[in-house]
Design brief:
five-stranded mixed beta barrel; AAA family ATPase; alpha/beta; 5'-3' DNA helicase activity; 31 helices
């Protein structure tokens, strides 16, 4: 009997494939029943990605044992190698399994009986001898020969790819795309894998290259590292890198000193049209250098930035309008609807109505939405057609609900088809005015696609809060447009009276001004549960020093127990007896406050931490034996549903992925709390992740084939364990999308998501963990963005020290873009 071992221990199984339980032709995902050689009479389930697999094949699988929640013990293989059939019976089954067109079980039996042990040698080296077998004529021989050559080509490609460290999953994908040319293409340039296949990055491609035999200082390797550096900088929001930055990153990637050679490689790549260069006076935190320097772009970002700047400069004409008639219309509108604009709002509406391109900005509660609603009504009264759009589905839905007309996501607006947008210069949007909300999320590439679809006659209005986090992609479009002073910008600053009553808005503006808000705790003021829209639960996690002290002290206590043989109550002693019973035991200076008697009787880790943590005040969760993780879980599962209703949407927004309060850890905890595995509930395991019916999930990257985009959130509605697919219903439009197994890797659990992923969305209730463990990501604009995602209630969980750190810590990492300069 095979044991169930740790999923992290790699093992090998050799055996004969008895049955193909399932095989997906598209992605190669296979479920096999295999008879291992070293376990006579037993069959085991093996899951593997394999382009071709046949009953009777003798295989060697490398991988690890797992336990599927529904199907039990399985061997999950990441490598599969075809071996020579172990017996005549296995060979007959192998050849007659459909492997070779024209060879069924009877023909296979004749072939094996005729050639015996030489059968495979005949197929490999002298296949024309098959004509010796009764029933095989010239025509059938030609068909068998062609089928065998095709099988051998697939087998050789899979063997080659796996021998250089490529998993079966990617080996199947590579063969599907490159076909019989796979070996040639990968051998010539392994680094093309990083560009052609999502999930294979530079580091994986580099391992393949070194395995094949590329020299560490190969020019192909160095240019690939330069490309990777530019690509990685895009993920950090940069449009370009300087030569010095590229050299530093390439040196680190390749663990070599190539500083003196980088200029030559960059020059050659420029000559080969592999990148673009712009001379720029680079910006720093405080000032600018005097001399322009060469800044290196990927071609795509270079042309996108150029295009955005050139199009915006052209959209500068004044539109025909009558200020007096507009003022009169605004007065009538106020009288009819009761919506009276402030002076700055009215000025904005009058000005925007006469501009082809403008920006409306301001913080929460300053009236951007009301201003937009009145503007749309005015434009339609003037006979102008209007289209509304936003980067995300949630933002578009909210925009449409408030303004009272349909709003689309930008991708839907531009009608994405295949590999591009249907709307472009040749097929522009048919509208007089285009209004875009949440424009802080616009990256340079999406902005270029959008502006390609805007005709010379169309007016465009950008709306957004430039103080929020910038886009996930490269660029800082809204902030750069405002800073250029070329585009008319209207900044709303007055907080309206109804907004002033919202603590979310009040605290958000304080944070944006660099003031640490004084947020009350419901542990100190229980009445906050009934009506407050923002509060702070003081909490913390254990430090390494605290955990170490607790462990040492418990060990000391156990030693005392053994020495004194206390049986009824092992901790029935006082500090004095402890000190005398265990010589050399001294409280470290930082733990002089600890009550050892209380520590000895504390219940659980949280209770122990409550004793050890210094100056725990009565409104801290530690005082009640709850760590920050405990508080987040109880807020999500008990407290918020109790006070806000069972159906309210709760979203945890964490600054980071890692750490005890990061999204990865919290998602596992919350999934187990609100959607645990149970008999009859369908679920699917992909790698280390488990997805169940009912789970809240988020899509991680734009997938134009599925029509799902980075940051889309939904709920799993169905799981098919046999086909290894699942179905997700996405909010807010209730789109049902089916995911094949290889596409499921693009999903993550979304009980907790990063604040960056929440851009453009609003949730009824937001839980915001803020602890010093997040110090690398504690920035003012991050906390500001997270807080303003809450519509009804925002709850901070953590330390006020961490919140103050974030408020006083401005993100000084300037994005390297040139749009501001190009616009001027």
């Amino acid at each position: 009997m095979y044991p169930v071992n740790s999923a992290h221990i790699t093992e090998k199984i050799r055996g004969i494939v008895q049955r193909i339980t399932y095989h997906n032709q598209d992605n190669g995902w296979s479920v096999l029943r295999v008879s291992p050689f070293d376990a006579q009479g037993e069959t085991v389930t093996v899951t593997v990605h394999q382009m071709q697999v046949f009953a009777g094949a003798t295989m060697e699988f490398s991988g690890s044992w797992t336990v599927h929640p529904k199907f039990g013990r399985q061997f999950k293989a990441n490598e599969a190698t075809e071996l020579k059939p172990a017996s005549a019976g296995a060979l007959e089954k192998y050849l007659g399994s459909g492997l070779i067109k024209g060879v069924g079980p009877k023909t296979a039996q004749k072939i094996v009986r005729h050639f015996g042990k030489e059968t495979l040698e005949v197929f490999e080296e002298r296949i024309e001898r098959l004509i010796e077998v009764p029933g095989i004529a010239e025509k059938k021989l030609t068909s068998i020969s062609a089928a065998w050559q095709e099988h051998r080509a697939v087998r050789d490609v899979m063997l080659f790819l796996q021998s250089h460290g490529i998993s079966t999953l990617f080996a199947v994908r590579i063969y599907k795309q490159y076909g019989d040319n796979s070996i040639v293409l990968v051998s010539e340039n392994p680094y093309r894998l990083a560009a052609d296949f999502y999930g294979i990055g530079f580091f994986s491609a580099d391992k393949v290259a070194l395995s094949i035999g590329f020299a560490p200082d190969s020019p192909l390797r160095i240019t690939a590292a330069i490309r990777h550096s530019l690509s990685a900088s895009r993920e950090q929001g940069h449009c370009y890198l300087t030569q010095e930055q590229i050299a530093k990153q390439v040196n680190k990637l390749l663990e070599m000193n190539l500083t003196d050679q980088i200029a030559l490689f960059l020059h050659e790549m420029e000559q080969d049209d592999a990148l673009r260069v712009r001379l720029l006076v680079t910006r720093t935190d405080s000032d600018a250098t005097q001399e322009p320097e060469r800044c290196y772009y990927s071609k795509t970002l270079y042309y996108d930035e150029d295009y955005v700047a050139s199009r915006l400069r052209k959209l500068t004409r004044s539109l025909e309008h009558d200020p007096a008639r507009i003022a009169s219309w605004l007065a009538r509108y106020a009288e009819q609807t009761g919506v009276l604009l402030s002076e700055e709002q009215a000025v904005a509406v009058r000005s925007i109505a006469g501009c082809q391109c403008a920006i409306l900005t301001g913080g929460p509660g300053c009236g951007k939405t009301t201003t937009t609603k009145v503007l749309v009504a005015l434009l339609r009264a003037m006979g102008r057609s209007v289209l509304l759009a936003a980067p995300t589905g949630r933002a578009a839905q909210r925009m449409g609900e408030v303004i009272g007309m349909e709003a689309k996501t930008i991708h839907r607006l531009l009608e994405f088809q295949g590999t591009g947008f249907k709307r472009n210069e040749e097929n522009p949007l048919q509208t007089d005015v285009l209004i875009l909300d949440e424009c802080s999320m616009l990256d340079i590439s999406l902005s270029a696609s959008l502006l390609r679809a805007v005709s010379d006659e169309t007016a465009i209005l950008f709306i957004g809060d430039a103080d929020q986090l910038p886009s996930v992609g490269a660029g800082n479009v809204l902030r750069d447009m405002i800073a250029s002073t070329v585009i008319p910008t209207h900044t709303l600053q007055t907080i309206f009276r109804q907004a002033e009553q919202s603590q979310i808005i009040t605290f958000a503006h304080q944070i944006n001004r660099g003031e640490a808000p004084k947020i009350d705790s419901p542990f100190k003021k229980p009445e906050l549960w009934n009506g407050a829209d923002c509060f702070f639960i003081d909490s913390d996690e254990a430090t390494k020093a605290q955990l170490s002290f607790i462990a040492r002290t418990k060990q000391h206590l156990q030693t005392v127990e053994e020495r004194e043989k206390v049986s009824a109550d092992p901790f029935a002693f006082d500090e004095e007896s402890l000190a005398t019973s265990y010589q050399g035991f001294e409280l470290p200076e930082q733990f002089q406050h600890v009550n050892l008697q209380a520590l000895s009787t504390a219940e659980g880790p949280a209770g122990e931490l409550a004793v050890v943590a210094k100056k725990v005040h009565p409104w801290s969760s530690l005082y009640y034996g709850m760590t920050a993780v405990d508080v987040v879980q109880r807020l999500y599962t008990e407290w918020i549903p109790k006070y806000c209703g069972l159906n309210c949407e709760i979203q945890v927004l964490s600054p980071m992925i890692r750490g005890s309060l990061g999204t990865a850890s919290l998602n596992k905890i919350l999934q187990q709390a609100v959607n645990p595995g149970q008999q009859g509930k369908a679920e699917i395991m992909v790698g280390e992740k488990i997805f169940r019916v009912g789970d809240r999930v988020i899509h991680r990257r734009n997938n134009y084939d599925l029509g799902v985009f980075n940051g889309d959130i939904g709920r799993i509605t169905a799981v098919n364990n046999e086909a290894l697919t699942l179905q997700v219903c996405f909010f807010p439009d209730q789109r049902e999308v089916e995911y094949q197994r290889e596409q499921i890797t693009e999903l993550e659990l979304a009980y907790a998501i990063t604040i960056h992923k929440s851009q453009g969305s609003e949730f009824e209730v937001v839980i915001l963990p803020v602890l010093t463990q997040h110090f690398r990501m504690l920035f003012r604009n991050l906390v500001y963005t997270g807080l303003t995602r809450a519509r009804k209630l925002a709850v901070f969980v953590g330390t006020r020290k961490a919140l103050a750190m974030a408020v006083h810590n401005q993100d000084t990492g300037l994005r390297q873009t040139a749009l501001q300069e190009l616009l001027r």
